[in-house]
Design brief:
Elements (H helix, E strand, L loop, with lengths): L1 H22 L34 E8 L11 H14 L3 E8 L7 H11 L7 E2 L3 H9 L12 H7 L1 H4 L2
Parallel strand pairs: 1-2, 1-3
Length: 166
């Protein structure tokens, strides 16, 4: 019995080695696909900085007679220049463009208002300082705009008491 048992054991061990050998096959070497060579790198687009939106600046035209020139040597020049500077600080989006003209006669403020209304209305000022005598003529000619729709009667009397006397 011994030879038969030995044969079984031999057969059993051979079978185990055979099965173990079948399960542990070494992989067959295969060639790897070629690795692509990196070409020259294209530069990344540079982000364009967005500009901060600038506030829209509105220009107000102010026509004055020579004696009120804020940059001249007149009596009230310093006061008006200070008021314009203070206004600009409070309203940085408004720029006052001062134009100085002679007060009366040919080439004066009223004459320029009449001429510009017909020839070049885009150059008319937003504000004009007229002599009280010429203000009535300008109003009669439709050269000045009434403030009735903008200011109440109480505000007009408070701000412009001299106009109530006209």
């Amino acid at each position: 019995m011994r030879p038969k048992t030995l044969r079984h054991w031999t057969l059993f061990i051979t079978l185990i080695f055979t099965l173990t050998g079948c399960g542990a096959q070494s992989p067959t070497p295969t060639s790897l696909p070629p690795t692509p060579m990196p070409g020259p790198l294209s530069p990344l687009p540079t982000p364009t900085p967005t500009a901060e939106p600038q506030p829209m600046i509105i220009t107000l035209g102010l026509w004055l007679p020579e004696e009120l020139d804020p940059y001249g040597g007149g009596a009230g020049a310093d006061v008006l220049a200070q008021q314009l500077t203070a206004f600009s600080k409070v309203h940085p989006d408004l720029q006052v463009e001062v134009t100085v003209k002679q007060a009366h006669g040919r080439g004066g403020l009223l004459d320029f208002l009449r001429t510009a209304r017909d020839a070049a209305p885009s150059v008319l000022p937003d504000l004009v300082v007229l002599d009280a005598a010429e203000l009535e003529t300008a109003a009669g000619s439709g050269l000045v705009q009434p403030l009735d729709s903008i200011l109440s009667p109480a505000e007009m009397t408070d701000r412009f008491p001299f106009a109530a006397e006209l």
